[in-house]
Amino acid sequence: MSEIFATTGTITAIATAVVPQQGSVGIVRVSGSQAMAIAQSLFHAPGRQVWESHRILYGYIRHPQTHQIVDEALLLIMKTPRSYTREDVVEFHCHGGIMAVQQVLQLCLENGARLAQPGEFTLRAFLNGRLDLTQAEGIADLVGAKSPQAAQSALAGLQGKLAHPIRQLRANCLDILAEIEARIDFEEDLPPLEDKAIISEIDKIAAEITRLLATKDQGELLRTGLKVAIVGRPNVGKSSLLNAWSRSDRAIVTDLPGTTRDVVESQLVVGGIPVQVLDTAGIRETTDQVEKIGVERSHLAANAADLVLLTIDASAGWTEGDQEIYEKVQHRPLIIVINKIDLVEESERTTLQSKIPVALKAHQSSDSKSKIFTAAAQNKGIDNLETAILEIVQTGKVQAADMDLAINQRQAAALTQAKMSLEQVQATIVQQFPLDFWTIDLRGAIQALGEITGEEVTESVLERIFSRFCIGK
Asked: In whole angstroms, what is the distance from residue 29 CA to residue 159 CA?
């Protein structure tokens, strides 16, 4: 058995981040049959405080043998089954920092608890029927959310908004299976099945699966974010664009070309989507070895980005250098940022656009390309840039119709398998195979759907899911 299945005994872990000189409160969590005994051994509650479930006690944590006080703290009691794990759970709410929580954790370990495995508290909640797998994954997503929308999507999963339709789809498949098996067992006593009716029911189930699968890209976008690379010749205003966009001075801005020698990163949120913005070194031929390394890293960043912002200098127009860079990044989703428009007259914009090569103009009419005018030094055009980015996301059909539902890769793989199995059932019916053959792939669809919520689950799946959790969750 894997270590993650060693769910016996009483477990403990620090449930909050431990940062030196930061954080006012640190929590040590204990779950299991000995949780109350450990709490009573370590915690002294003065006066006549009642040790009842869902009460908070005030007092001192002290060594059970020496009676030396370790910390002044609160004790939260949650008895089974009204707890996160459906076991007895106690939490020591200590002072933040390092020493207090580490000493309390050590006392818990010395008095009968063992250190929890990553995700073991949530694993116990799943095994004890407190959560299903989609809710457990929602917890992990909520902890790691990078934007309000990502947190909202994770919370929807935690509230069962994904589990409910999955369970309904599985129940519908089970109903169809029961009808088929009834005909197999009692063929002479029941009327024959209507093939068209079964196919129609399967079509409805497959359509709902398709709708859920459409949220996968949105889920990935909310979880991992969008990587955007700002590329262009030296001194076209890439660093100014990053600073204006992030409202900070992350990048050095001077009139000297080649100032940025490495990739500068900033984390933003655009329309609810986490965005990692990379300001790259100006791309040009150079003999400076350090700058040459920066240029190579710029090429790598552009090729790895989900979206490229090719920035040009409006006062210089479309140059041969811009064309060379464009030819290297044109295979990526692309926005042309025409910067420094404050240095040219309004009438010159039309002239500038006419100088853009015909090949580039053709791309401008497609869904994946656009151009934006900015004056980064004056913080102008940033809103239009963000709008263009969101339009590209939506045009690429990455935006989900239902922001509440955003499945992950594991769930998408299971849904895809279920859909393929249902399509095979339909093919079997059309080919007029015996009823026994109908049930084979139908059972496969039922199993795939059950894997999403945990009704059908393997040890390897659980280990893959819960090993991503932090130890205290």
From this structure: 23
Type of residue at 353: Q
List Cβ<8 Å contacts ≥24 apart for 177-181: 177/439, 177/442, 177/443, 177/446, 180/435, 180/438, 180/439, 180/442, 181/439
- Report yes or no: 173 and 446 within 8 Å, Cβ to Cβ: yes
CA distance 179 to 73: 60
Q: Is the pLDDT of residue 287 over 60?
A: no
Lookup: tokens for 338: 């025409």
Among candidate residues 398, 401, 418, 400, the one with its CA nearest the CA of residue 166:
418
Whether this prediction's pTM lies above 0.85 is answered by no
Which H or E element spans position 36? Answer: helix 35-42
pLDDT at position 369 is 52
| Contact residues for 154 (Cβ-Cβ < 8 A; gap 6+) | 138, 139, 141, 142, 145
**Distance, CA of 292 to chain centre:** 35
Pair 84, 130: CB distance under 8 Å: yes
- What element of type H or E holds 154? helix 148-158
H/E element, 255:
none
Side-chain half-sphere of 102: how many Cα atoms within 13 Å? 6
The residue type of 236 is V
C-beta contacts of 5-9 below 8 A and 24+ residues apart: 5/459, 5/462, 5/463, 6/117, 7/120, 7/123, 7/124, 7/127, 9/34, 9/113, 9/114
- φ, ψ of residue 269 to 5 degrees: the values are -130, 120
Of 114-123, 247-256, 319-328, the poorest mean pLDDT is in: 247-256
Amino acid in position 305: A
Cα–Cα distance list, 165 to 154, 156, 168, 272, 430 (Å):
16, 13, 5, 25, 28
